[in-house]
Amino acid sequence: MNTAQTRIGWIGTGRMGHAMVFRLLQSGRDVSVWNRTPEKAADLVEVGAVIADSIAELADREVVFTMVSADADLLQVLLGEDGLLRQPHAPAVLVDSSTVSAETSQLVREAAAARGTVLLVCPVSGNAKVVKAGKLSIAASGPEDVFEQIEPLLADMASSVTYVGEADLARLVKIAHNIFLGVVTQSLAEITVLAEQGGVSREAFLGFLNRSVMGSTFTRYKAPALVNLDLTPTFTTALLRKDLDLGLAAARAMAVPMPLTAATHAAVQSAIGHGHADEDFAALLIEVARASGVELKPENVAVDDGLSTGIGHPARQPR
């Protein structure tokens, strides 16, 4: 496959899908896009995208990417009455970047194979701002020869592309990744509230942490949300719960004890029960504080996220 000439289809331009398509277009790729709400993809036309009126219009594309929220969404866009794999033509390669169950993935793989389409599983690590900063990471699994053919397309969107093996192994990698995301965020919320209760501002504490050996790309880019209590969703609490559900189910199937994950799941469920389902999962901080009898206030301080400037740590800005 000559990827320089590859005609690409894309299903799903939510926060992540939109940012990923934008990078493909910036690389000069030929991309046709379908989204359930067309208005959310309209601005991509300005950088070269073609907006499809129906999924059927993508069926003759060589490679089609899917990036949707949940199992039901993926099954609908691929196997539903007007789904991609129900059309007279089918793409050579289907690349799914959604986080769904192994059972759903197997249904899709079998349906794709029946149409002569190869499924590659390519979940991602990062949010839309990470994509825009060129720091997205992708794990990929499926036939290695097909992966090698479409790797240049993945590299257009990500700074790191890792082939992890056959079939659904990349989904397991992503689920394990998001379990870690949840556990780290809950722990970060707890220690931040602990420090604040002792009199340390969130800005100062996270500034120290992110300059230490314990700081990471994640803790840096999450710092502004925690300092200023910005719960504008990059990844919702409800989606985090979904991934923890998938992780605990996989752990039961493989007899792996995961007590920290179970405790984090309970904390996430509690946050959802208190109205944070559709807010950013940084809401875990609010809930730790609430359980401590504390009502947090935004600190209203400019904090570096480590993405925009490359400095790599929250820093006090001139005021």
Structure summarized in a few sentences:
By secondary structure, the chain is of the alpha/beta class. The protein has eleven helices and nine strands. Strands 3-2-1-4-5-6 form a six-stranded parallel beta sheet, sandwiched between helices. A three-stranded mixed beta sheet has the order 7-8-9.
Structure description:
There is one protein chain. The chain has 2 domains: 3-167, NAD(P)-binding Rossmann-like Domain (Rossmann fold, 3-Layer(aba) Sandwich); 173-291, N-(1-d-carboxylethyl)-l-norvaline Dehydrogenase, domain 2, CATH 1.10.1040. The chain is 46% helix and 12% strand. It contains 11 helices and 9 strands. It has a 6-stranded parallel β-sheet, sandwiched between helices. Strands 7-8-9 form a 3-stranded mixed β-sheet. The longest helix has 29 residues, at 169-197. The chain is globular, with a radius of gyration of 20 Å. The relative contact order is 0.10.
Architecture blueprint of SSEs:
Layout: E1 7-11, H1 15-26, E2 30-34, E3 50-51, E4 63-66, H2 71-79, E5 93-96, H3 102-114, E6 118-121, E7 124-125, H4 128-132, E8 137-141, H5 144-157, E9 160-165, H6 169-197, H7 202-211, H8 217-228, H9 237-253, H10 259-276, H11 283-291
Parallel strand pairs: 1-2, 1-4, 2-3, 4-5, 5-6, 8-9
Antiparallel strand pairs: 7-8
Helix pairs in contact: 2-3, 6-9, 6-10, 6-11, 7-8, 9-10, 10-11
